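Our collaborator T.R. sent over the components below with a one-line note: 'Predict the complex.' Nothing else. No constraints on interfaces, no templates requested, no preferences about which chain binds where. So this is a plain run: every listed entity goes in together, and whatever single assembly comes back becomes the starting point for the next discussion.
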Amino acid sequence: AQRVTQPEKLLSVFKGAPVELKCNYSYSGSPELFWYVQYSRQRLQLLLRHISRESIKGFTADLNKGETSFHLKKPFAQEEDSAMYYCALSGLILTGGGNKLTFGTGTQLKVEL
Amino acid sequence: DVKVTQSSRYLVKRTGEKVFLECVQDMDHENMFWYRQDPGLGLRLIYFSYDVKMKEKGDIPEGYSVSREKKERFSLILESASTNQTSMYLCASRSDVRRQGSGANVLTFGAGSRLTVL
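Returned assembly:
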C-alpha cells in the first residue's frame, strides 16, 4: 500500500518568515514524490517534483528516504504563497499501466502581513 | 489555453437522480482520472482510465461508474445520487508513462465540478 501523511491542516506564518510544510510517506518501493498547489479559485497544478531537483517560486523539497519525508520549504514566505498544498506519491503500478498517484489530505498555508 | 475542460462548474441535484459529469482533454493523453476533493480528506481517486474503453477502480468507486468511449472524453456517472456524494469532483489527464517515460508522470487538472445533492 502507499500512503501520504500531511500532519498539518493549517499553517499560518508571517510574511518573510520561513515555511516548512511537512509530508511523510509510506511505500515499500522507490516512489516519485510531488507537491501540487491550488491557489484560490484556480486549478490544482504541479509545483515541483523530486526528480527535477529544482526550486520553483522559491520552494524546494528534498526526498529523505531514511525518514520517508518530502517536506516543502521556503526561506521567506510571501503573501502570494497562500494556498492549499498537497503532497503526492506515485508508486504502485495500476493494472493496464501507469502509476497510481496518492495524495495527502493537504495543508492550507496562510501568509499573514 | 484550457487543456482539461469539465462541462459543469456547479450542479445541484436531488437524491436519487442520475448525474453525469463530463471531462474533455485536448492533449491526446491516454490516461484520465476522476478524483473527489473534500476538506480534511484531500483528493481520493474514484476511477482511472488508461485508454479508450479501459477503466480501473480507484480507492472509492462505490456509487460511481465511468465511461471512456473516445480518447478525449471521460465521464463520471452517479447512478443514484446521494447526499454523501456532495463534493468537488476533479478530472485530470496524463500521458501514458510507459510510452512517454517518467517525465510524463504529471497530472493536468480541470477546474472542478462542485456537486450538491439535496
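Summary for T.R.: The first helix of chain B runs from residue 97 to 100.
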